[in-house]
Amino acid sequence: MMSTVADDKEKKTVLLLFAWALILVVSHLPEIITSELLFGIPDWLDWAKFGAVAFILVLCGLWKTVRPLWQLAVVFLVFQFVLMISSWVETRPGWLNFFHGSDPTFTRVFGESFVRDIFVTLAVIATLWTLKGSRRQFFLVKGEMDAPIEPIPWLGIGKGESWRTFGWIFAGVGGLGVAISVLLSVELSWDVIRGVLPMLPSVLLFSAINSFNEEIYYRTTLLSTLPEHIGKNHALLINAVFFGMAHYLHGTPSGIFGFLLIGFYGWLIGKSLLETKGFLWAWIIHFVPDVFTFASYTLFWVQQ
After folding, report:
1. Which CA distances in Å does 109 have to 39, 84, 168, 214, 285?
2. Distance from CA of residue 146 to its chain's centroid?
3. CA 299 to chain CA centroid, nearest Å
């Protein structure tokens, strides 16, 4: 009996280590390492990541201990493949002329990444839907908006609290944090504000698309496949690291501080997904700070 328990514990440890390995491979860690050590991101990196995920998927088929990771590996293999196709399309003359031709606008330049990301997101949704058989199985439903929030004593959240209250609090705090950092980094004037106003519809649209896209491929992919195999806490921690690394190089804020802050924010959003069993609060909590982030881009655009 003792041997069986020890074997089970060892298998769970191996599974957890491989889950971390898979996530770190597809995360932005390779880009961070190459940027810091090689002063740039090599062209072959996406192919290397694709090959590494393919290897892990083959390993899932051959090794029973890590087999529970096969669905996540499939999703990320599709993700990497579509991402590489999108990157190739972005180098085509017609694409470049449309988005970066003469006198490019804010909407065209920033819209480029969202056209690409929408295709990636749709591919991930299609893959998850095929694997899971129902969109509810990967949280693509509204969810229980007034679901109880699991207590977080060190944040002052006790028993009996609801996501209907703290969802808005988290969204508001996130938005306020970004707004303050933006105001400290730019000089506002009436001319700048007048220049920004026509871009507000684009800001709202880009914020809605970006928050939706990132919640799909940074959150639902992991949290619809990992918790049942490695536990909720480990899954949330992995997701926090995964989300934080995505903002290390180009986040608002970026760097180590951005990684820690946004990783923590991602942990909270992940909790909302698991505890409400739906997508809406996660999207709202992500959308609000994104509005201020994209508003900051318009400020810099006008001031150029």
Report:
1. 25, 20, 31, 19, 26
2. 24
3. 24
pLDDT (tens digit, 9 = 90+) per residue, 4-45? Answer: 666 778 889 999 999 999 999 999 999 999 988 877 888 899
- Give the start-end residues of each E strand in the chain: none
Identify which of 147, 167, 169, 150 has the alpha carbon closest to the alpha carbon of residue 159.
Answer: 150
Contacts of 77 (CB under 8 A, 6+ apart): 50, 53, 54, 57
Q: Hey, is 202 helix, strand or coil? A: helix
DSSP 65: G
In the block, residue with structure tokens 């699991």: 150
Cα 231 from chain centre? 20
Structure tokens at 187: 């000089």
Tell me if residue 142 falls in helix, strand or coil: coil
Structure tokens at 90: 């972005």
Residues constituting the chain: 304
Query: Cα–Cα distances in Å, from 9 out to 14, 22, 229?
Result: 9, 20, 12
pTM, 2 dp: 0.92
Which residues, 6+ apart, have CB-to-CB distance to 87 below 8 Å? Answer: 46, 116
User: Each residue of 117-131: pLDDT tens digit?
Assistant: 888 999 999 999 999
